[in-house]
Amino acid sequence: MNLLSLINLAYIVASILFIYGLKMLGRQSTARRGNSLSALGMLLAVIVTLLDRQIIDYTWIITGLVIGGAIGFACARLIKMTSMPEMVALLNGCGGLASLLVGWAEYGKIQSLGWAHYLEFFDGSNKPFTSTVIFLAVLIGGITFTGSIYAFGKLSGKLSGKPVLFGGQQFVNGALVLGLIVAGVIFVIHGGQGPIGTNAFYVALAISLVLGWTLVMPIGGGDMPVVISMLNSLSGLAACAAGFVITNNVLIVAGCLVGTSGVILTMIMCKAMNRSLAHVLFSGFGADTTSAASSEGAGTVEGELKSISAEDSYSVLEAARNVVIVPGYGMAVSQAQHVVRELAEMLEENGAEVRFAIHPVAGRMPGHMNVLLAEANVPYEQLVEMDSINPQMPMMDVAIVIGANDVVNPAAARDKSSPIYGMPIINAHEARIVICLKRGKGAGFSGIENQLFRLENTRMLYGDAKATLQAVVTEFKSVKA
Ligand code: NAP
User: Fold this and answer.
1) Ligand 1 pocket: which of 361, 371, 434, 435 to mutate (most atoms <8 Å of CB)?
2) What is the pTM (predicted TM-score) of this model?
3) Does domain 310-480 have CATH number 3.40.50.1220?
4) What average pLDDT score do residues 163-170 get?
């Protein structure tokens, strides 16, 4: 077996490790092992690539490794779970920038060596193909980079989370896309050579950076998770294009895996919200939630809001035998997951069966509730998916809704004029008694009213979820002591 076959064999092993690692990430019980397996695959790919490329000076590589490793280690230790979405946005941006730089560097090499000499290094490549993939790596990398930085700004609160809309926005974006296509065709035809080819490259580079920004501008902060997973997919495609530029098989495979898994995740989120990707990207959802609530016919809600104290909540829960907890975005905001686990344990000690009903888009990122509850060591077996818990809902004595709103809004099933009509919900309203924890009359992500809060069997426990839950737990402790 010659060296080239050995290298390709190692790349195949690395790819298999990536695929198995990804598969294992699908279950919480195997996710850690899956992550380690993928990291092992990446280590193998890096080592083989370093040997394969006959590198004569390791100085820059080691410098990059040390600086990058230190930053990565510090981020892993310091970044809170709740800041994960913006962290992922930054990482996507870095991936996009890396692909852009690979494409740009290779273009620089072509400029200095000339096509004939450059292609001698790459078996089977030709001028139109290589210029096309260079262009794609730069274009997709550029859009991913600035789009991700904007998304990071919105998620971290450094930029307004409101959609930024202006007249003729779609026209401006359309003109930019057209400009990119024209620049791309000119670049490929001229092979990036001469003043025309060179100008086409720099024009395309500038447009891609502007386009990343303007595409994310009209998207509301709440829709950012969908955008992040889409940008994640784009960063994979940019890496794939960079893999073709430098004819590196493992980069092509890894890029494809990231690209396709990002697309799948984006589609899952859109389906769970019952919205199309086009609606997420172009509707400016959340720009004016009050008008969405009134004019789009969020439906009129009837009935009184009836509050309940922590002491009375305790009395209700003390008598319950079947309790379902429905967490939502408010649990993440108040960081109530630890006290939720404490309450669940107390209810179980009291003889109740406790389950957590998990909606696929509760919170602001996929798996948001799973991550928070896992952090608080809630047993995975207690987490029940929406489709499994809904048929059992009429048997539940009490449903405790913790900072969830849209994902338990019955209007999604009943009111055709509601902006969230068609979104599957957790049927908390079917439980015998519903206790809803929220701070006041604040609407959910969609900005619409929720009939659940005014139903006969619903009681509102007002206040920050962590504080009110703590009060219920204290009541449990004092009575049982
Ligand atoms: P939600 O509809 O955003 O409602 C959250 C509720 O939490 C609010 O009504 C708020 O009411 C309450 N709240 C906020 N801070 C609180 C605190 N400290 N203590 C107690 N309550 C608090 O949440 P959701 O039901 O989880 O629904 C998620 C929404 O996000 C869905 O519409 C979904 O489509 C959207 N979305 C999700 C994803 C994803 O990947 N998960 C992605 C994009 C969009 P008060 O202000 O009155 O307290």
Assistant:
1) 361
2) 0.79
3) yes
4) 86
